[in-house]
Amino acid sequence: MRERGIRLVAVDEDGTFLRDHVHYDTERFERLYDRMCDLGIRFVVATGNQSYQVQDLFPKQREELGIVSANGAYVLDGGREVYAAQASRHAQAKMIEAIHERPHIPFSMLGVGGAYIERGCDQAFFDDMAQYCHRQYWVDSFEDVDDQIFMFSSVVDAREVGECIELFRSIVDGSMDVVGSGDGYFDVVCPGVSKASGLKMLMERWGIDPSEAVAFGDSHNDLAMLELVGTAYAMENAPQDIKDAADRVAPPCTEDGVLQVLEELLF
What we know:
Helices cover 33% and strands 24% of the residues. It is built from 9 helices and 14 strands. The mean pLDDT is 96. The protein is an alpha/beta fold.
């Protein structure tokens, strides 16, 4: 039975909407998307991934989607830019210096025009990040990149990610924020930027109250978004503290949990 009062559905990608970073049941989703359109419900993808990746994963809906990408640093409404964060020159210089001093920790640097990885970095890291950034380039040095930069991303052994997050928090010293995104991944983002801040921009643009929104997430970079909306779903595969912060628990991403819940809410 359809739950009343829903005007927006927001979903994280990896660990939430997607089964394995790439796949979802497209026919099942298209049926649900058409239903949302009929009911006047907006659909938003809120992710740490690059906007180009989101648009490639949703080719039929890309001109209508709300996209909160790069953990809120780059926000689009139907392909139109709503907001693009920009790290200060001071913050960028601090991060680049720290990265060069720690070559064992790989990093990608993201901006409006694409994602960048320095030559000499491991090919496996480049290939891994290419799952999340579909417009990605090798560069000789981050310092040579001419782009509006808003995020740095890395992945380490999951047992070491907490230590790395604390390390880079101390390095950037408030000039940027550091957030974990699950499975050893973490991002260094502009201060005050989050999936929640990006989602609020779209809701204000569309005249939607947070109480009219439903969101799905599985990781710590989803927490603020889950706290913002009227009804928050944590995935069954999420850590326990994420489940504790949510209103309800959805089946795991491997079982298309988001689609299962949406079928219950929309029909």
